[in-house]
Design goal:
It is built from four helices and nine strands. By secondary structure, the protein is an alpha+beta fold. It folds into two domains: 104 residues; 88 residues, 2-Layer Sandwich (Alpha-Beta Plaits). The two termini are 23 Å apart.
C-alpha cells in the first residue's frame, strides 16, 4: 500500500511543483536545509515510508543544463550530504504535484532501498592522474605501472571502484572510489603517498561527492529528463 507523502506545516505555492534534489533516509522530524533552492526557495524533506525526498517548491519547466542552475542543484546535494547518506537524483527532476512525486517514489521504492545498501555511510572520491604539458609523455609501460599502483594502493581502502574514461592522451588514470566515511583519512593518506611517488605527474583528488557513479541516479524517472 502506498502511503501519502505528508508535507507538514507547509502549503505548496500556487503554480509550483516539487523539484527533487536527492533522497535520504527519513529523519525523525521534518528537516529544512535553508533557502538554497531555485529562486531562493526553502529546501526541505517530505516523507514517503522510511525515505524522504529532499525538495523545494519550484516552477514546473524544463531545467536547462546551464552552469548556474546545475550549481544550485549541486550545492543543495552537498549541503544535505553533510548530515545524511544521500541517494542522488538526476538534475531536472521536477514534478507537477506531490501526488506525482508520490507515484514516482512508489515505483522506485525497491530500487532506492537497494541503492541505499550501497551508499549508506559512504561517499564518492575521484582520482585523476595526468601529465602536465611540459612533461614528456610516458610510454605504455610507465602508464600501466602507474595505474596498477593506484589501483592496488587504493582499492584496499575503498568499498568499490569505477574506472572512468581516459578522455585525453595526457590522462593516465581516471577513477571514482566508493569510500566509507570512517576511512576517508586513511584513503587520503594513501593518495598523498602515491602522489609523492609520481611527482612528475599531477594527481587531482576530488570529493567527497554523492555516489553518482555507483547508483542509478535516474530512479525517479524512466527518461533522463525528469520533467513530469
Amino acid at each position: 500500500m502506498i502511503r501519502r507523502i505528508v508535507q507538514r506545516d507547509r502549503r505548496p505555492q500556487e503554480g509550483k511543483g516539487k523539484y527533487v534534489y536527492c533522497v535520504i533516509r527519513r529523519p525523525s522530524e521534518q528537516e529544512s536545509f535553508g533557502d538554497l533552492g531555485f529562486e531562493g526557495e526553502k529546501v526541505y524533506t517530505l516523507d514517503y515510508r522510511d525515505l524522504s525526498p529532499v525538495v523545494s517548491d519550484a516552477v514546473v519547466r524544463e531545467y536547462s543544463v546551464g552552469e548556474d542552475e546545475v550549481e544550485v542543484h549541486r550545492k543543495v546535494v552537498e549541503r544535505v550530504m553533510q548530515e545524511h547518506s544521500v541517494l542522488p537524483v538526476a538534475y531536472g527532476m521536477v514534478f507537477k504535484s506531490r501526488k506525482l512525486l508520490q507515484i514516482a517514489m512508489g515505483a522506485g521504492y525497491q530500487a532506492m532501498q537497494e541503492a541505499f545498501g550501497v551508499v549508506d555511510g559512504r561517499v564518492e572520491l575521484g582520482i585523476k592522474v595526468f601529465l602536465p604539458r611540459e612533461i614528456e609523455a610516458w610510454d605504455e609501460k610507465r602508464r600501466a605501472e602507474c595505474r596498477s599502483d593506484f589501483i592496488e594502493g587504493l582499492d584496499a581502502s575503498a568499498s568499490d571502484r569505477k574506472d572512468l574514461k581516459l578522455f585525453s592522451d595526457r590522462l593516465v588514470f581516471n577513477a571514482a572510489f566508493l569510500v566509507e566515511r570512517a576511512r576517508i583519512e586513511e584513503f587520503s593518506g594513501k593518495v598523498s603517498g602515491l602522489a609523492s611517488k609520481y611527482e612528475d605527474a599531477k594527481v587531482q583528488y576530488s570529493g567527497p561527492w554523492p555516489a553518482y557513479n555507483f547508483v542509478d541516479i535516474h530512479i525517479l524517472g524512466k527518461k533522463r529528463k525528469g520533467f513530469r
